[in-house]
Design a protein that fits this description.
The chain is α+β, with helices and mostly antiparallel strands and 370 residues long. It contains six helices and 20 strands.
Length: 370
C-alpha cells in the first residue's frame, strides 16, 4: 500500500520580538525642535542686558559728570580730605600769587580750621553748558552756619577718562584775595601756618574758604592772629599790634633814666640837683607858674610821681623806634622850706639799641600849678 504524504503547510504564529525596555536597555527619547524656545530666551536676555546697560550708563554718567565733580570737591573738604580736593579741582592762581599757598600743605593747613569742614546740604541748582568741554555749575550749601551759593566752571580733563567712555572733569577754583591790615613794624605774616613773603605782607591770594592769618612776634610786638572768612573775594582782616611786656619795661627804664640824664650846666630844671643863686649879696627871683615871682637863694626840683605810670607808647613806622608820652608832677623846694607843686608832660623818641632803648626825652613838668 502506497503511503500518501500530506504536503499541506500549516501557518504557525510567531511571537513578537521583545522591546528594548523589556530587555533592560534605555529607551531613546524622540528628538524635539527647541529653536523657538531658545530664541525667545535669548531675546529676553538681550532686553535685560540692554536695560542693565542703560542703568549702568546712567549711573556712570552721573558719577563722572561735571556736577558730581563739584559735589565731590565739597565732600572732600567736608571730610578734611586734601587729596580728594586736589583730585577734583584745578586751582586758578591770580597774578602775583605764590604757588605754596595752593599746594597740599596749604590745603591741610586750612582744613585744620573747623569752619572749612562745616559744609552741609550741598545741592545742585544749575547745570549749564558753556561749550563742548566746559560747564557752569551752581550749587547751594550751608557753610559754617551760613547759606551760600557758588557758581564754578568745570572743564573736561583730556588727559584722563573713566572706563574709556566717561571724561574726567576738573572744577576750576579761583583764588580769593585777603587784604591784611598790619601794625607798624609787623612780624612775618603766615597763612594757615605757612609763612608768606617778607616783601609783601599786606595782600595774600589763597583758596576760597576760612583762613587763619598770623603775625610772628618781634622784639617790640607780640604775635597776633585772626581768622578770616575768605569764601568771597576780597576779604579783609586786621591784626593788632600789642607792644610786648618786655619792650614796655625796657621803654619805661629808658624814660626814667632819661629824666635823670640832664646837663645841669645847660639847664636850670634838672631833677635832684640843688641850684644856688649866683651872688648871695643879691635877691634873685624866678617865675613859678601859678605862684608868681619867687625869691630864692637855692632851689631843687624833684619828681612826685613815676612818669611812666600810664605812659603811652606808639610804634613808629621806622624799624626799632617807639614814641612815648605821659604826664609828670614835681615839687619845687626853695631855700629848703618853701614847696611849690607843679605838673606838666613829656615826649620821647625811643630807639632800640640791641639790649634796650635809647631815649631822646623832652619834658616840661612845671607847666602849671599842680
Amino acid at each position: 500500500m502506497d503511503s500518501q504524504v500530506d504536503s499541506t503547510m500549516v501557518a504557525v504564529a510567531t511571537p513578537p520580538a521583545p522591546t528594548p525596555a523589556e530587555l533592560g536597555r534605555p529607551v531613546a527619547t524622540p528628538k524635539r525642535r527647541r529653536l523657538p524656545l531658545l530664541g525667545g530666551a535669548l531675546g529676553v536676555l538681550a532686553i535685560a542686558l540692554l536695560a542693565a546697560a542703560v542703568v549702568v550708563n546712567g549711573s556712570l554718567s552721573k558719577k563722572y559728570s561735571a556736577a558730581q565733580a563739584v559735589q565731590d570737591y565739597y565732600a572732600a573738604m567736608a571730610h578734611r580730605d586734601a587729596d580728594g580736593m586736589l583730585a577734583n579741582a584745578t586751582f586758578i592762581r591770580g597774578e602775583g600769587a605764590y604757588s605754596y599757598f595752593f599746594g597740599k600743605p596749604a590745603l591741610q593747613g586750612m582744613l585744620e580750621l573747623p569752619a572749612n569742614s562745616d559744609i552741609h546740604n550741598v545741592k545742585l541748582t544749575s547745570d549749564r553748558q558753556i561749550d563742548s568741554s566746559s560747564r557752569s555749575i551752581t550749587v547751594s550749601m550751608t557753610w559754617n552756619g551760613k547759606n551760600r551759593s557758588q557758581t564754578l566752571t568745570v572743564r573736561k580733563n583730556p588727559a584722563q577718562a573713566h572706563w574709556l567712555f566717561y571724561p574726567a572733569w576738573k572744577v576750576e577754583i579761583p583764588s580769593t584775595r585777603i587784604q591784611i591790615k598790619l601794625p607798624n613794624q609787623a612780624g612775618i605774616v603766615s597763612l594757615d601756618g605757612i609763612p608768606g613773603p617778607s616783601d609783601n605782607q599786606t595782600a595774600i591770594q589763597a583758596l576760597p574758604g576760612f583762613h587763619r592769618v598770623a603775625m610772628a612776634e618781634t622784639t617790640i610786638l607780640d604775635g597776633a592772629s585772626a581768622d578770616v572768612d575768605a569764601v568771597e573775594s576780597p576779604a579783609i582782616v586786621t591784626l593788632t599790634g600789642t607792644i610786648r611786656a618786655s619792650a614796655r619795661q625796657a621803654a619805661a627804664e629808658s624814660v626814667k633814666a632819661a629824666f635823670n640824664d640832664c646837663d645841669v650846666a645847660r639847664y636850670g630844671d634838672c631833677l635832684n640837683h640843688t641850684y644856688k643863686a649866683p651872688d648871695s649879696n643879691f635877691i634873685y627871683y624866678f617865675t613859678v607858674p601859678g605862684y608868681g615871682n619867687v625869691s630864692y637863694t637855692r632851689y631843687v626840683y624833684a619828681l612826685r610821681n613815676d612818669p611812666t605810670d600810664g605812659m603811652t607808647l606808639t610804634v613808629d613806622a621806622n624799624t626799632g623806634k617807639l614814641s612815648a608820652s605821659g604826664t609828670c608832677t614835681q615839687t619845687l623846694t626853695v631855700d629848703g622850706s618853701r614847696h611849690y607843686n607843679l605838673k606838666g608832660d613829656y615826649t620821647a623818641t625811643l630807639t632800640w639799641a640791641g639790649d634796650g632803648f635809647d631815649s631822646d626825652l623832652l619834658w616840661d613838668c612845671g607847666k602849671a600849678k599842680g
